[in-house]
Amino acid sequence: MLPSPRRPYTILHTESSLGWGGQERRILAEAGVMRQRGHRVLLACDPRGELFLRARAEGLPVMSLTFGGWRNLKAGLALCRFIRKKSVDILNTHSSLDSWVGLLARKFLKEPPRLVRTRHLSTPVKNNWPTRGLYQAADAIITTGQATKELLERRLGVPGSRIFSIPTGVSLTEFVPGEADAALRARLKIPPQAYIWGTVAVLRSWKGHLYLLEAFKELVAAGAQAFLVVVGRGPYREVIKEKMATLGIQEWVRLVGYQDRVAPWLALMDAVILASYANEGVPQALVQALAMGKPVVGTTVGGIPEVVIPGETGLLVSPRDPQALAQAMRHLMAHPEDGFAWGRRGRELVLENFSLEQMAAAVETVYDGAWEKGRGG
């Protein structure tokens, strides 16, 4: 007989990714806030990944596990032993490889934990029987945006009642409206009167940096007193630098790399822009910017329209459209009163819907439902 439902849960998050982006940040933030709410939180992740190191640094118990290739069976057995030893209640998987290993591990357990699969990106999933089986085996599925939920329903036939859209929450104490750091502006050699556009994203092709640079070129060519600050690191850095050189805009663009504390950089920006053309849930960078009272410009991709509400928190444009991006940017520069009003409304939107505590409470509700489902409730 299965044990009675209980709080707190023992929660095990698995992640096979080696990167450090929005997905991995969400896992760590969620683990932290759930621990504060009294749950026992464990992680199993690849020791080569940054999540492994950061989780350890924050004092979270972390199992070292390599998920992929021919080691799947070995990884499944190791995960099985860990789950049994730690009496895990909820197994929350995050990427494809660790989801397969998690499913395998459950096969060896007489009383397996409830299985919750979090889908972070709006990338189209394969519509085949292995993928359908993987998602349908989950007791519940969490997505980081409504668009991703609808995608899974449409492509895989998973009932919407088993999929829950829970956007990533932000810290309302870390991301607050505040004055820009004049010393940081001076360090970047940006004149006091210049308008600062900013973007915060991993430097990947689908984040749309090249389209943003083309749009920014139009502003510079028209004589606008504007600078662009690009925060982030990634495999596309050299491509971006080459594009800047081709367009002749190096003088007005600052590539500042990865910043562990992003709030001071957002404070520096007059407006924040994300030019992605694929794969987005509800982007954390845009929610953080809104929390700080910044107007935002985004594309009609994934979950971006859930936070970029035209004429209310910012402006939306079609993806891969530099002219539309430039037009939106010109509007905000010409109408600062709109920017201030949209920033205030954006802050209100985050307070109403996107705090870390609201995210954690919603995740707890999903876990409760998964627990009851496992009991036949």
Which helices and strands occur, and which strands form pairs?
Layout: E1 10-15, H1 22-36, E2 40-45, H2 50-57, E3 62-64, H3 72-86, E4 90-93, H4 96-107, E5 114-119, H5 129-136, E6 140-143, H6 146-156, E7 163-165, H7 182-187, E8 195-200, H8 209-221, E9 226-231, H9 237-247, E10 253-257, H10 263-268, E11 271-273, H11 284-291, E12 296-299, E13 314-317, H12 322-334, H13 336-353, H14 356-374
Parallel strand pairs: 1-2, 1-4, 2-3, 4-5, 5-6, 6-7, 8-9, 8-11, 9-10, 11-12, 12-13
Helix pairs in contact: 1-14, 3-4, 8-9, 8-12, 11-13
Proper CATH architecture of the largest domain: 3-Layer(aba) Sandwich
Biggest sheet details: 7 strands, parallel
Widest sheet, order of strands = 3-2-1-4-5-6-7
Q: So what's the overall shape?
A: elongated
CATH third-tier fold name of the largest domain: Rossmann fold
Q: Helical region count?
A: 14
Helix content: 40-55%
Q: Determine and state the CATH class of the largest domain.
A: Alpha Beta
Brief digest:
With 377 residues, the chain is an alpha/beta fold.
Key attributes of the depicted protein:
single chain, 377 residues, alpha/beta, Rossmann fold, seven-stranded parallel beta sheet, six-stranded parallel beta sheet, 14 helices, 43% helix, disordered N terminus
